């Protein structure tokens, strides 16, 4: 199937102006921004939705559909590209990117939603007429009619290599992840086919919105009054909004008494706070605090015990977000802008230290739908020295007998166990603490002593945490 340029009309048929469907048009605009400007969908989409709603173009259902079209299309991009490639007669790189975006949106409607086939095709062709012109709209029509001949499962069966021949390529295509990410996730998860398939599928699902009721500032009871709110699974401070909703409109969130925070992140802060300690427990450090989610929970927990949190962040604009998150904390705290690899504080000054280091974010792919296509294996090399440098600072900053939490929102072994193992070698007077009992009631945390959370097991981001004690 080839893409024809628009030809002059030769028939006497009256020309019908294409009708702009605001939902598809908005979804297309976001895909273009992601493609052309390397924009992040979760940053571009909300202001466009607000504008559309304010202009009266959109109601809540339209906003939900636009969100589903954007996120679903971006997450499944790998599979959809392969399906489109099977329906056109030239390499995909020779198809104009805006045409591909209209096609992907169409494929998602056909194979990833309950929108009826005729509606999915006609809405996509209409969108193509508006944004691409009549000639390319015909091309879109022809490709989507081919796509519509099979459902999602039949397509993947047709185009994916058999699992037995190449398990990783098979999973990468069927579950729309780059092969290197499938490989890395599987290395960390271990086990057979069922687990990795569940994990990859969990990455393709819309995550729930989870709130944290910051202790001493708000309560879960207060948040449970919100629509479709249910208690968290693991954190005593968590409330899940099963319908998503608009957390920014909730009074407790607006005033900072509560926040939006994945339960995995809450658990990391809680585990560090729960680690047993002999001697004083008065000085806590969060060495990579921006934008302040864990710092706000730690500061509230510290306040309950009469301890003080120092929240430090390298980027000034992120340090300001930390200050905003901590504003109103019931106990004392301090926020500073500092490079954690060259800390301004004295060695051994803290009883508890959190280092939630910059990482590839492979544990939060469900939140950042385009991230999996942007990340490259080389990124790991970029983060490696910084992760080691920051953990070194953490181990130097804690007093003898104190504890360090090393956390990532990536389960990649190069960012988790490899970093911890290297630093333990350099600091022989340290020991790993079994972190699993620090989260009572949370199952399947791994073989220990560190903790690995998983979206398909815990419903959280795939957060990693090692707790290390300085023994000398
Ligand atoms: C994974 S994020 C931390 C998330 C945070 N703990 C939370 O829960 O909101 C890592 C943070 O480390 C910061 N960072 C990067 N390099 C740093 C450095 N050398 N020293 C201190 N912070 C750094 C980044 O700007 C980013 O805000």
Automatic annotation (TrEMBL):
GO BP terms in the entry: methylation
Q: What class of enzyme is it?
A: transferase
Q: What is its EC number?
A: 2.1.1.-
A GO molecular-function term, please? methyltransferase activity
Q: Which residues form the active site?
A: 409 (nucleophile)
Tell me yes or no: is Methyltransferase among this UniProt entry's keywords. yes
- The residues listed in the UniProt record as binding S-adenosyl-L-methionine, with positions renumbered to this chain, are 288-294, 313, 339, 356
Family that this chain belongs to: Belongs to the class I-like SAM-binding methyltransferase superfamily. RsmB/NOP family.
Quote the protein name from its UniProt record: RsmB/NOP family class I SAM-dependent RNA methyltransferase
Q: Which organism is it from?
A: Streptomyces galilaeus
């Amino acid at each position: 199937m080839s893409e024809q340029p628009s030809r002059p009309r030769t028939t006497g048929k009256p020309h019908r102006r294409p009708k702009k469907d605001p939902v598809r048009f908005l979804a297309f605009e976001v895909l273009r921004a992601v493609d052309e400007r390397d924009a992040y969908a979760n940053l571009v989409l909300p202001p466009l939705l607000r504008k559309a709603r304010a202009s009266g173009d959109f109601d809540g259902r339209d906003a939900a559909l636009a969100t589903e079209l954007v996120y679903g299309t971006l997450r499944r991009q790998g599979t959809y590209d392969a399906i489109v490639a099977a329906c056109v007669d030239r390499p995909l790189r020779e198809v104009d990117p805006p045409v591909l975006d209209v096609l992907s949106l169409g494929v998602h409607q056909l194979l990833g939603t309950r929108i009826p086939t005729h509606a999915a095709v006609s809405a996509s062709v209409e969108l193509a007429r508006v944004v691409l012109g009549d000639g390319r709209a015909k091309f879109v029509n022809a490709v989507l009619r081919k796509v519509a001949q099979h459902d999602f499962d039949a397509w993947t069966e047709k185009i994916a290599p058999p699992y037995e021949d190449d398990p990783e390529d098979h999973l990468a295509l069927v579950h729309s992840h780059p092969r290197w990410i499938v490989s890395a996730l599987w290395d960390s998860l271990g086990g057979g086919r069922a687990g990795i398939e569940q994990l990859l599928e969990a990455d393709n699902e819309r995550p729930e919105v989870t709130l944290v009721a910051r202790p001493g500032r708000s309560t879960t009871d207060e948040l449970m009054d919100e629509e479709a709110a249910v208690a968290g699974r693991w954190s005593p401070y968590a409330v899940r909004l099963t319908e998503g909703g608009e957390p920014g409109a909730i009074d407790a969130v607006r005033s900072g008494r509560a926040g939006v925070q994945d339960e995995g992140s809450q658990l990391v802060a809680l585990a560090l706070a729960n680690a047993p300690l002999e001697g004083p427990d008065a000085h806590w450090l969060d060495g990579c605090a921006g934008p302040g989610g864990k710092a706000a929970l730690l500061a509230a927990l510290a306040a309950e015990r009469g301890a003080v949190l120092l929240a430090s962040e390298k980027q000034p604009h992120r340090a300001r977000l930390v200050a905003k998150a901590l504003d109103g904390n019931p106990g004392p705290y301090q926020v500073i802008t500092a490079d954690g690899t060259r800390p301004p504080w004295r060695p051994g000054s803290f009883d508890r230290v959190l280092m939630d280091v910059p990482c590839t974010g492979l544990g939060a792919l469900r939140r950042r739908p385009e991230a999996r296509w942007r990340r490259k294996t080389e990124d790991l090399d970029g983060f490696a020295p910084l992760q080691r440098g920051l953990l070194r600072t953490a181990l130097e900053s804690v007093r003898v007998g104190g504890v360090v939490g090393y956390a990532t929102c990536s389960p990649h072994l190069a960012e988790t166990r490899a970093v911890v193992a290297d630093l333990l070698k350099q600091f022989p007077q340290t020991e790993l603490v079994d972190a699993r009992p620090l989260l009572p009631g949370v199952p399947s945390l791994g073989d220990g002593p560190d903790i690995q959370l998983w979206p398909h097991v815990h419903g959280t981001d795939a957060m990693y945490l090692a707790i290390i004690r300085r023994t000398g």
